[in-house]
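Researcher: We plan to redesign the surface later, but first we want a full-length starting point. Tokens attached.
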């Protein structure tokens, strides 16, 4: 089962985020045909797994109505995810512990399901079609509420012995430093996550209620913003030097909310990182190119590869996977469908 699948096939790609479950029907050229989104934790208390089932069922129904055959689904989620078994070891924010997500979904939706890790999937997408195009050794660092990385070595994403490779948010950058939500102290996440930057800015007397994005926007005009940002950059530079020594990457790609700061982050980070490396050159630093679509693209790659159509993925182009928005009016929010599917099952 190699080569191109017939034109009338599609895969379902689903990215489980902290606030939204985003799904899409993706054709064999990697183009999103139809999108469907639902709140991860709806006010009515619907469990995440049921929201996920509803999104999958909704997209499968849409495919059937359009005469498309679904070859499989790729579902990417945070947590410790075992791609080979489809089990989630632990996902704190989703309330899953040792959960057989693949079996759970396959029993409810008549589609083969491949389960992946959100950051590793996004990193695989950035490596193939985004800022990492052409590189075989790189790290994709997602700087959001938390921090995690996808480590790509020899073209493959490393998952590790306990499927926790890339949890660099909990890499110590200040021994004996600030407490982290994980129970350790001095973690990168306690200094350079979006939440940490906003918190530090407030501590320094910055405008109350500001987000990390506000801090980035105030750089150069607000000394508290400059200082909070600089501290985060120094912590990130230290973590980046450790990553550089461990992985010898050609480049480091930064995505997530703080990654959108672009050169406001990367320019001082290049300077700090170069200052930490004495005997070797720093890897290239780049901003992610697929943005919030990286998870969907990675999930679609997972689905096609698991279905035996990996060869088509190698022919995808960046323009196609980012979508022809003319055919896609944007995500439809369908909590009522979520409820309906739940009642029927
Ligand atoms: Zn930690």
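Model: Full-length starting sequence:
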């Amino acid at each position: 089962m190699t080569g191109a699948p017939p034109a009338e096939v599609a895969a379902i790609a689903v990215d489980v985020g902290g606030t939204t479950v985003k799904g899409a029907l993706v054709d064999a050229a990697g183009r999103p045909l139809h999108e469907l989104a639902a709140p991860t934790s709806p006010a009515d208390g619907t469990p995440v797994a049921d929201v996920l089932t509803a999104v999958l069922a909704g997209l499968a129904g849409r495919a059937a109505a359009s005469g498309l055959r679904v070859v499989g689904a790729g579902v990417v989620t945070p947590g410790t995810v075992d791609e080979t078994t489809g089990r989630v070891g632990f996902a704190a924010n989703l309330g899953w512990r040792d959960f057989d997500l693949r079996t759970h979904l396959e029993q409810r939706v008549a589609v083969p399901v491949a389960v992946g890790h959100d950051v590793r999937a996004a990193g695989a997408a950035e490596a193939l079609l985004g800022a990492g195009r052409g590189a075989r050794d790189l790290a994709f660092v997602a700087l959001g509420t938390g921090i995690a990385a996808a480590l790509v070595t020899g073209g493959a994403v490393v998952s590790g012995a306990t499927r926790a490779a890339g949890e660099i948010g909990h890499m110590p950058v200040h021994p004996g430093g600030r407490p982290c939500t994980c129970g350790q102290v001095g973690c990168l996440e306690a200094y350079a996550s979006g939440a940490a930057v906003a918190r530090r800015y407030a501590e320094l007397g910055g405008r109350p209620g500001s987000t990390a994005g506000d801090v980035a926007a105030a750089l150069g005009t607000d000394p508290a913003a400059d200082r909070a940002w600089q501290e985060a950059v120094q912590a990130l530079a230290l973590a980046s030097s450790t990553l550089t020594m461990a992985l010898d990457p050609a480049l480091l790609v930064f995505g997530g909310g703080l990654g959108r700061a672009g050169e406001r982050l990367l320019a001082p980070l290049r300077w700090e990182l170069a200052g930490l490396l004495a005997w070797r050159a720093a890897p290239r630093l780049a901003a992610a190119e697929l943005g919030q679509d990286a998870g969907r693209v990675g999930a679609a790659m997972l689905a096609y590869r698991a279905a035996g159509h990996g060869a088509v993925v190698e022919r995808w182009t960046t323009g196609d996977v980012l979508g022809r928005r003319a055919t896609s009016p944007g995500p439809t929010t369908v909590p009522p469908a979520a409820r309906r599917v739940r009642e029927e099952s």
